[in-house]
Structures are given as structure tokens and as C-alpha cells.
Amino acid sequence: MRFPVTRDPGNFSEVIELDLRDVDYIETHQTGFVVFHTKDEVFYPVVPKLSILEKHLEDLGFLRLDRTNLSNIEKIRYYDEERSLVFFNDKISKSSKFTTVSSSMKKMLKNRLARKSGRNGNH
Fold this sequence. Notes:
Layout: E1 2-6, E2 16-19, E3 25-28, E4 34-37, E5 42-45, H1 50-57, E6 62-66, E7 69-72, E8 78-80, E9 85-87, E10 98-100, H2 106-120
Antiparallel strand pairs: 1-2, 1-5, 3-4, 4-5, 6-7, 8-9, 9-10
């Protein structure tokens, strides 16, 4: 099994997929961080916080649309500007998945979607 880790407790460095078969032991450090020890190095599991994921997933097309979500821009199928919602289904229904867009992100999202639709015709 592979586990996403970094070389620093704040998860600011590059994400590495650590093969758990290479781990000698795992401990909780006195600072409260979980630490994976291999023969020569120590690693810290990626903490599943949006702020950490935001930094590492930006290059994969994820954008923080408001304080509660990171959305994959390539998966957005419809942007309802009036209600500040993005949808991930081609046909919108009561069961469609959606998330919210903060007022501060509306303009940036609109620009990103315009660039995307210029590439593949979706919006």
C-alpha cells in the first residue's frame, strides 16, 4: 500500500507516495504529528485539510471555490452565476451534485471556465 506523505510536518514540500513496506515504524511525535520512519528518513502523512490539499492539487486543476470546497474545474458542467453554484452533471436535477462559489471567486471562475470552454466547447 502506498501512502501520501511529505518530508515536513506542515506538508508544504512535495507529496511522495511512500510504500508502507518500506516503513520501519510509525509513531506519534511529542508535537502531536504522526511520523513514518524508514531506514534513513522520516515522513509525515498528508493531513486531509483543504488548505493542504489546495496547495498540492492546484496543478491538477482543483480550485478553491469557497472556504468549504476544492473543485476540479475540468469536471464542472454548469455554472449557475445567479445562485453561485457549480454542477458536475450534464443534466441538472434534484439529485445533481453541486457545490458553492464564494462571491470573491465568481470572476476568477468565470474566466477559468471561459478558457476551458474555448478548449472543448463545454460551459
